[in-house]
Amino acid sequence: MATVRQDGDTLAFAGALDRACVVALWPQVRNASARRLDLTAVDTVDSAGLALLAELCERLGIAEVVGEPSGLAELRTAYRLDRNLAFAG
Question: Which SUPFAM superfamilies match (predicted)?
Fold first, then answer.
């Protein structure tokens, strides 16, 4: 199960960001205030996890995404997202 904690202006995620955890994590983060996402303790990301992260980046105006868990690079490419999970065109 994935977890998230607020550390100053950073939301730090851990575990596997997958479909099973997104429903549980969304209420914890939807009203958060952050400028950075820390994914260094995330094992893997699936498309549901990517959707959660991309939505947070958009809503919060995330300036930096740190970490490269398994699956993230491939999903970013497939969905044409840049390193900060914004649409790259």
Answer: SpoIIaa-like
> What are 64's two structure tokens?
């930096």
Say how many residues make up the chain.
89
Q: pLDDT tens digit string along 50-75?
A: 999 999 999 999 999 999 999 999 99
Q: Which two tokens stand for residue 49?
A: 């996890």
The CATH code of the domain at 3-78 is 3.30.750.24
**Residue keyed to tokens 């044409």:** 80
d(CA 77, CA 28): 27
**pTM score of the predicted model:** 0.94
Tell me how far apart the alpha carbons of residues 29 and 53 are, in angstroms, rounded to a whole number.
10
